[in-house]
């Protein structure tokens, strides 16, 4: 711990020193904690949170050094309608973002942050997104009044003293966060402070600043993740010629030991964590994880596309995670893990829906209520999450921290589509692949506040995360590909594990069986597997997809691989009206691809 007098010792960064002083003057905290990122600091903060009722230590013989946190019922997920991109003009934010005038927004925020940390500690968290010495990495500093955020950032990023050494007097993104609940006159704290009436998740893309107020949960509060590594980084990437994407990164190795890296963009709670560390059902094949949520990608000197994971931890969806669905995740979270909004068992461990076939007889649920299997309430919130270090994953890739990144051979787009979209298809080239990404739709999940299961357009799985005009983002993807040697570009695929039959049953078993689709993709990249050209792209021929031992019904397979011309014609109409909103920002390349698809569906 440091007092504020030691600020000159703490950092040589003039801008950082200025900013910390300004923040203290504005927020009027009770004290200041300059984080060093040590284990001791982590433990001390956990002790504080235990005292405050924020954290419950789990049974150390079951889950060593692990904790349960429970939020309030009104602070459980990202709040997209309270997320703002405050570029100079509304046009720069584009039609898919909430925009607000930057000067107006600054005034609003200054008012909110004034005195917002009274009675609390102001923490300074220096963090690095990406391996400490990678040329692809970038630094941020978060100021927060939430010790939960400090401990989470310690797991999710490279955090602490070392980052300040690397930073020197260089550039960092200031990430300003307050839960928005000052404590006046020795007012007693609550276990999960927040300000549900006044949530603001704000980005100033031109000045590369983040201000977040009122929420302590996930992407609203761990500002390195969505706010920095996606919204602000997407703007940096556009300006500097790289890509910041909502993608997992994984290595996939065939029985002969040949390995390819794959990146995949699926919307929130659509299967990235599961795919990224999957245990393939196909004998001899192996998956190794580099990242489960975000990829930063740039061309290397050899002309290939390289990716790093800017994160150091998983912030994964707990419900549905089991030894059966994701054994590697279960093994990752056996220790040193923070659980949020899961249920507590009588023996001091955690439980959530889908973790075991039989629920325990008795639990305390995420709402702190007594729970039994016939309770009306959920045991865990559907967006309950675990926060755990990537290095604990049994299948972490040996190159997961490689400073140059890993070379990407294939990019996948996918989402939840109960109809229309087939199990897998291959795009014809980069331009077409960009169009496939741009026209992605998916049914909404509990990862964001609002209705679940509603089909919406989610281009590149970036709808909530693109920091500028989405039309310009499409153009960036197109020009990015044009600059490259086409023979070195990753091939682009579409996948859909979520197709249902008329009775609402999954047509595809998913999870470990998805390795069959990955195998086809692997072999397509090597020009080995067969494909049939259709109007929408190249689909597997029946024999090219390895379905041995799966017992998939003939009719189910037919539906999974069908291209229903009428449904697709309708789909192109949805795409067309969706794209219209981008007006002059919609690149010619996307229009050309849409028209070509319409033509192919006609003939
Ligand atoms: P974020 O962390 O929110 O960005 O999401 P994510 O894409 O990492 O989501 P995750 O992998 O945690 O997916 C969560 C949900 O998808 C759970 O409900 C899983 O059970 C479900 N899921 C994952 N893979 C499959 C699959 O292959 N088939 C089916 N039917 N469900 C799946
Ligand atoms: C997502 O919603 O896509 C997440 C979780 O990965 S959060 O960090 O809360 O955004
Ligand atoms: Mn995500």
Topology:
Elements: H1 7-10, H2 14-27, E1 31-34, H3 39-52, E2 55-57, E3 67-69, E4 83-85, H4 90-93, E5 98-99, H5 102-113, E6 121-129, E7 138-144, H6 147-156, E8 158-159, H7 161-167, E9 173-178, E10 200-204, E11 209-213, H8 218-221, H9 224-240, E12 243-245, E13 247-253, E14 259-265, H10 272-276, E15 286-291, E16 295-299, E17 305-308, E18 313-317, H11 323-332, E19 338-340, E20 343-345, E21 350-351, E22 363-364, E23 370-371, E24 385-389, E25 406-414, E26 424-426, H12 430-438, E27 441-443, E28 455-457, H13 470-482, E29 491-495, H14 515-525, E30 531-533, E31 538-540, H15 554-560, H16 565-580, H17 588-602
Parallel strand pairs: 1-6, 3-19, 4-5, 4-10, 7-9, 9-11, 14-25, 25-29
Antiparallel strand pairs: 2-3, 6-7, 6-8, 10-11, 12-16, 13-14, 13-15, 16-17, 17-25, 18-24, 19-24, 20-21, 20-22, 22-23, 26-29, 27-28, 30-31
Helix pairs in contact: 3-6, 12-13, 12-17, 16-17
């Amino acid at each position: 711990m440091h007092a504020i007098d030691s600020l000159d010792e703490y950092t040589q960064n003039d801008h950082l020193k200025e900013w910390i002083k300004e923040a203290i003057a504005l927020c009027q905290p009770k004290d200041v904690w300059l984080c060093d990122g040590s284990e001791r600091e982590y433990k001390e903060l956990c002790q504080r949170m235990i005292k405050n009722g924020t954290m419950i230590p789990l049974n150390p013989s079951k889950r060593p050094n692990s904790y349960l946190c429970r939020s309030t019922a009104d602070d459980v997920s990202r709040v997209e309608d309270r997320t703002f991109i405050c570029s100079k003009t509304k046009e720069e934010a584009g039609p898919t973002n909430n925009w607000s005038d930057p000067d107006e927004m600054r005034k609003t925020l200054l008012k909110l942050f004034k005195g917002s940390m009274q009675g609390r500690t102001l923490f300074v968290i220096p963090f690095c997104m990406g391996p400490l010495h990678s040329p692809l990495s970038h630094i941020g500093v978060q100021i927060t009044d939430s010790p939960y955020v400090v401990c989470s950032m310690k797991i999710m990023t490279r955090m602490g003293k070392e980052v300040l050494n690397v930073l020197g007097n260089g550039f960092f993104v200031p990430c300003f966060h307050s839960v928005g609940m000052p404590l006046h006159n020795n007012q007693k704290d609550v276990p999960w402070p927040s300000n549900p009436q006044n949530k603001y998740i704000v980005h100033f893309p031109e000045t590369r600043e983040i201000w977040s107020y009122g929420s302590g949960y996930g992407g609203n509060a761990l500002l390195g993740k969505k706010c920095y590594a996606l919204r602000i980084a997407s703007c940096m990437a556009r300006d500097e010629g790289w890509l910041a994407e909502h993608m997992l990164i994984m290595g996939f190795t065939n029985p002969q030991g040949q390995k390819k890296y794959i990146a995949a963009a699926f919307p929130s709670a659509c299967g990235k964590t599961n795919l990224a560390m999957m245990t393939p059902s196909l004998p001899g094949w192996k998956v190794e994880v580099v990242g489960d949520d975000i990829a930063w990608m740039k061309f290397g000197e050899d002309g290939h596309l390289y990716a790093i994971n800017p994160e150091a931890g998983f912030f994964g969806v707990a419900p549905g995670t089991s030894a059966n669905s994701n054994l590697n995740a279960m093994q990752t979270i056996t220790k040193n893990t923070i659980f949020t909004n899961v249920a507590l068992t009588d023996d001091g461990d955690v439980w959530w829906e889908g973790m075991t076939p039989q629920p325990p007889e008795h639990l305390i649920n995420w709402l702190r209520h007594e729970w039994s299997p016939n309770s009306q309430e959920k045991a865990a919130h559907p967006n309950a999450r675990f926060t755990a270090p990537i290095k604990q994953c049994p299948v972490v890739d040996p190159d997961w921290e490689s400073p140059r990144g890993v070379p990407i051979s294939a990019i996948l787009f996918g989402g939840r589509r109960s109809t229309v979209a087939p199990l897998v298809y291959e795009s014809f080239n980069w331009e077409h692949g960009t169009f496939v990404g741009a026209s992605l739709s998916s049914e909404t999940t509990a990862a964001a506040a609002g209705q679940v299961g509603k089909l919406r357009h989610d281009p590149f799985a970036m709808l909530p995360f693109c920091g500028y005009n989405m039309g310009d983002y499409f153009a960036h993807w197109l020009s990015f590909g044009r600059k490259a040697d086409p023979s070195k570009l990753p091939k682009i695929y579409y996948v859909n594990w979520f197709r249902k039959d008329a009775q609402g049953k999954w047509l595809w078993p998913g999870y470990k069986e998805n390795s069959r689709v990955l195998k086809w993709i692997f072999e397509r990249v090597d020009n080995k597997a067969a494909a049939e050209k259709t109007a929408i792209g190249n689909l597997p021929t029946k024999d090219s997809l390895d379905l041995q031992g799966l017992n998939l019904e003939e009719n189910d397979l037919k539906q999974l691989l069908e291209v229903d011309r009428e449904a697709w014609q309708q789909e192109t109409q949805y795409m067309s009206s969706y794209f219209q909103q981008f007006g002059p920002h919609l690149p010619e390349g996307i229009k050309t691809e849409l028209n070509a698809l319409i033509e192919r569906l006609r003939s």
